[in-house]
Amino acid sequence: MRAAILGCLLVTLAAAQPGNWTTYSGDPGAQRFSPLTQINTRNVSGLKPAWVYQVGQKSEFETTPIAVDGVLYITEPPTVVTALDARTGRPLWTWRRTLPKDLQTIGFGRVNRGVAVIGDTVYVGTLDAHIVALDAKSGAVRWDTEVADYKLGYCITGAPLAVKDKIITGTSGGEAGIRGFVDAYDAKSGKRAWRFYTIPGPGEPGHDSWSGDAWKTGGGSTWVTGSYDAATNLIYWGVGNPGPDWNGDDRPGDNLYTCALVALNADDGTLKWHFQYTPHDDHDWDATEIPVLFDATVRGKTRKVVAMANRNAFYYLHDRATGEFLLGVPYAKQTWAKGLDDKGRPIVLPNTSPSVEGTLLWPNLNGSTNWFSPSYSPLTKLFYVSVREIGAYYYKSPAEYKPGTFFAGGGERALYGDDAHGSIRALDASTGKLKWEFPLHTPPWSGVMATAGGLLFGGSDEGNFFALDAGTGKALWQFQTGGKVVSNPMSFSVDGKQYVAIAAGQGLFVFGL
Amino acid sequence: MRFTFWAVFGCIALSAGPFDKLGPNDLARGKRLFEAQCSVCHGMNGAGGKGANLAVVKFRNAANDDALVEVVKNGVPDSEMPAAWWMNEQEAVQVAYFVRSLGRIASTIKIAGSIPAGKEVFLGKGGCAGCHIAEGAGGSMGPDLSLIGARRSPAHLRESILEPGKAVPEGFLALTVVDAAGNKIRCIRVNEDTFTIQVRNMAGKILSFRKSELREIHKDFGASPMPSYAGRLAEPDVDNLVAYLASLRGEK
Fold it and tell me: Is A69 a known active-site residue?
């Protein structure tokens, strides 16, 4: 009897799973791929709005909802969590963080990209750099732990990552002279389990890639959610730019582990391997793009890889157990590197550093892509990425560190207007070769999601939310939301019906057949 | 005595401006930054171009020196003037200091023409009012010129009259679209997204297309539907027209 009930429960849970969207990128490997097939290439032209939820804040609305058994957990700007009835869009509860009056976000907006959920608890990072655990039924606070001092520019905008019994978070602050880290907190108690500093201190390997005291304000933020591989028990997390961003004079050296991908043991945070994409970066090309896990065929062999379409315009593959560099090819216009050497290190062209007069270069500081998510489809074996084709004049200026202030040493004037454009590119995930592309009117701030229904969803700065044929790139459906899409698509099902959701402007738009 | 001391001190404190402690090195640094980063729009000597003429004593968007520094740092909202956010505080002050010095060099730009005669050309033989609004009257095909004198230098205005394609303002891109029936439509872009485009045809009518319905969208960069007035207007008429347009500053 007992076994029968348990069996029944397990079946129910298992059945509920495909309809849920359990983590920021959809799965721990960050493929942002929905296995749902109800909405597909044959019927997507009939997709219609089911409901819209409006937020009251004017800051950009960047959330990816988490869907658990008919409830969507979203974040709203600046630090608000709301549970919505997934059938109707009606709010069930809202939790608002009271933010300190002297809080400043240095170099970015007052935004949040989403929550993590384990069981009956919802976890959110706050703009004043705390992790807060909320009761999933009521929004009541279970625990609240300070991650770092917001007065020094530490700040959390990314969704935490749930790994077994821990909550993993990074920090923003790459323009404030922070010393970045990846942290793990015990999901039950809120106690910090481990911290990995992205800037090695004296005596630690990699410290000699810095000189003098530059490491103390070396940046290396970790503001976008990473991924996790249960087989290797490794967490993959991207690390941001060195500080000051555009003036590297006072920080000679490679500046590890800035602009690198780090692979950390999930149990104790120790570094298993790292790979630095842009040594001694002076263009703000954070390597904080989503690390995506899948099986690729490299030189005839099946390899378990981690892939990253980097802000620096190159697409990379690594062996995910060892970090071995397997592939690095450009996927967007770039004018800063001659190419990569055998080890994947860029061969940097002369006169590409920022200058007083302005140095014209592609991509601009926002990169060929940015935090918005790519997607991998195990069906098409394509890697999909939203690409920004925009150059900029990079400027250099003196930088002086003052705690809690903008520490950047320059910046850029980007070439907007008809000189800039965007596209959705589908790359052969194993070779990086372009399979197809879909042009966008302007450089996008929206991620993409592939589905088992053969679709690829994406958005545009002009408010278009659209579905393409994932195999060919042909446009099959679009809806004008009336607001800039600065978020990522996701999909869920409830009562046997599939929906697709996107945050656009000040609304969460949910579509169904 | 004591009272006088405090009074003097108070005066200094009250009049403290952002440029008080600056010297020739700051001016030189400001000039270098201006020439590198601002002259694209404002011209090498600040006399204007796409951007406003800065060789003036009074600025439209900066009532005092502090406000001028703020404009450098934060730009002018709803205009093409961006925030120079990449400059540090000192650099922004140095650039503002140099910009302030431009007005002291004197407003050397002499405009030859007559304002009333230029207005006659605008309304009469120039036919400008057919497409442009000035002083509340005129057509809406072309850019609104009500404040053009504050936004463009006389040299830029002259160039726009003689070679309109050289600096087509934002929001007035000329297009040729070919519809499904093969009709070629000359028009101005009103708006565009990835899937649709809205245009104004030469009769001023708004047309809306799904891009999938169009055979072709050709963007005529560097072209303007406005005819060149080189040879159409006598040189004195052009001078007068420039003088009239330069006077449209929203000031009475």
Answer: no
